Amino acid sequence: AEMVVDRTIRDGVARIPPLLVQPVAAAAAAQALAEAAAGPHQGRAPDLAGPRPEDLVDMARRALAARGRRVALAPTWRSGVFGVEAAGEAMLPGPGARLAPTTFDAWLEASAASA
Questions:
Q1: pLDDT digits (tens, 9 = 90+) for 36-88
Q2: Phi, psi of 56 (to 5 degrees)
Q3: Which residues contact 79 (CB under 8 A, 6 or more apart)?
Q4: Three-state SS for 9?
């Protein structure tokens, strides 16, 4: 979410697409990739997602607050990052996805504490 802010910020306003995502911690993604590379179906990993859907605009707001950054957010599909085709549940994992346990809130708290 914060990377989207950094890519779309102009004149102190970040244009964030109002989409649903199911973020996964980088450590969980790395573990899943390592397992896929060494496992019986080498190179074929199931969909991987975090434990629950999150609103990208809300994630950006919380991430900025945790880092003490003040940026105005403008929810819009005209961000240049994702188009309206990503609306609804388009960015959420399929029914057979592997769900990693770390929530965005837990990741954010841990990353803020280590900064």
A1: 788 776 656 678 999 999 999 999 999 999 999 999 999 999 877 788 888 99
A2: -60, -40
A3: 4, 8, 15, 16, 17
A4: strand
What distance in Å separates the CA atoms of residue 89 and residue 49, rounded to the nearest whole number? 13
Report the alpha-carbon distance of residue 28 to residue 22 in Å, rounded.
13
Residue given tokens 């240049």 in the structure block: 80
To which H or E segment does residue 16 belong?
strand 13-16
Evaluate the CA torsion angle 13, 85, 50, 45 in order and state its sign: negative
**pTM > 0.85: yes or no:** yes
Amino acid identity, position 10 = R
Tokens (6 digits) for 114? 């280590």
Query: What one-character-per-residue DSSP string does 24-78 give?
Result: --HHHHHHHHHHHHHSTTTT-PPPEE-SS-EEHHHHHHHHHHHHT---EEEE-ST
- Residue type at 53? P
User: Which tokens in the block code for residue 75?
Assistant: 């929810």
